Amino acid sequence: MKFLLFLLSFFNRSGCLIKNWLYKNKILTPKKAPLPLISVGSIALGGTGKTPLVITLMSYLIQHGFKPALISRGYKGRWEKSGGILSDGKSILARWEDSGDEPFMVAQNIPRAGIFIGKNRLLSCQKAKSLGFELAVLDDGFQHRRLHRDLDIVLYTPGERIAYREPVSSLKRADMILMKKGVDSQRKRRMMERFPEPSVFVCSVKNKGFFRLTENKIQPGENLGGKKVLAFCGIARPERFLSILHQGGIKPLFFFKFPDHHPYPKSSVEKITDKYKKIKAEAIITTEKDALKVIHNESLKKIPAYYLKIDLDVEDNFFTKISNLLQNWA
């Protein structure tokens, strides 16, 4: 698996180097969207916390009187090629299978945001503008050089052993870099010396508690700490989910790791419930992204099943800079 990730990283980085050279030398030029565009992205392959950041950012924009729209490719959704509108800011208009799991998760958390899906991100921006949205957030957009962006926010933590889409030197294109809390001061200083132009900020993942899968009532994490638990997830970096559980005093008896964006067919759910019975577990825990795909499964309604809800805690200076930019766009 590590060798395959290395190959994937190599080809991604090679392709990005060529693409970036073409844009740097103005052989290719980005197109301007009809509304201000904030890109949230990463130079890593998956699992960097982009979706929690998108939710945090869009909540902030709405709180400050803006009408934002999410522009997403809709990876592995039915609309990825054809395009579609998941939410018009009033109602969710389709299912997660159409939009992909992460945009649907944003729609559930931010019902007042528009959610536009499809590979043609410029067309999605045009649709958003026509429906009265004032500002767009481009999901996973750092490598999408076809569109001009007014602000590039990139999640990056030095020292992480993960595969990269493009070299670390690409961070010089960013306007703001977000690193995880816990990075030592020397690493942060070196980052600021190497990339003097982007502003560097710190963020951390915050556990908001466990919610019952079939209800919308919070179940405090300490009530699950002493129980026999089976955990499962289908995310890019499952060890992060497991780490948050351990921090909350929860050590699963068994942990299913499915591929990222796993759709959970009947066979997968049966595997989970059979194992739950076999190990005589008292509860099942998964992530919020996985929960939206299994919430209507009848088998899981019969047992205590929960999902972990997380948030991204970002330092105040980050939002001060965002606020200053918004004043210029208003």
Describe this structure in a few short sentences.
The chain has helices at residues 2-24, 50-63, 96-99, 101-109, 121-130, 185-194, 238-247, 266-278, 288-294, 298-301, 316-329; strands at residues 37-42, 68-72, 84-88, 114-117, 135-139, 151-155, 176-180, 199-212, 218-219, 229-233, 254-257, 283-287, 305-314. By secondary structure, the protein is α/β, with parallel strands linked by helices.
Describe this structure in words.
The chain is an alpha/beta fold and 330 residues long. The protein has 2 domains: 2-197, 3-Layer(aba) Sandwich (Rossmann fold); 206-311, Rossmann fold (3-Layer(aba) Sandwich). It has 11 helices and 13 strands. The chain has helices spanning 2-24, 50-63, 96-99, 101-109, 121-130, 185-194, 238-247, 266-278, 288-294, 298-301, 316-329, and strands at 37-42, 68-72, 84-88, 114-117, 135-139, 151-155, 176-180, 199-212, 218-219, 229-233, 254-257, 283-287, 305-314. Strands 1, 2, 3, 4, 5, 6, 7, 8, 9, 10, 11, 12 and 13 form a 13-stranded mixed beta sheet that branches. The model has no long low-confidence stretch (mean pLDDT 91).
Terminal CA distance reads: 48 Å
The gross shape turns out to be globular
Could you report the average pLDDT, rounded to the nearest whole number? Answer: 91
Under CATH at level 1, the class of the largest domain stands as Alpha Beta
What is the number of domains?
2
Give me the secondary-structure category: alpha/beta
Reported CATH architecture of the largest domain: 3-Layer(aba) Sandwich
CATH topology of the largest domain: Rossmann fold
Task: Give the count of helical stretches.
Answer: 11
Name the helix and strand elements from N-terminus to C-terminus, one letter apiece.
HEHEEHHEHEEEHEEEHEHEHHEH
- Percent of residues in helices comes to 25-40%
Q: What composes the largest sheet?
A: 13 strands, mixed
Unreliable stretches (pLDDT < 50, length at least 5) are none
Total beta-strand segments: 13
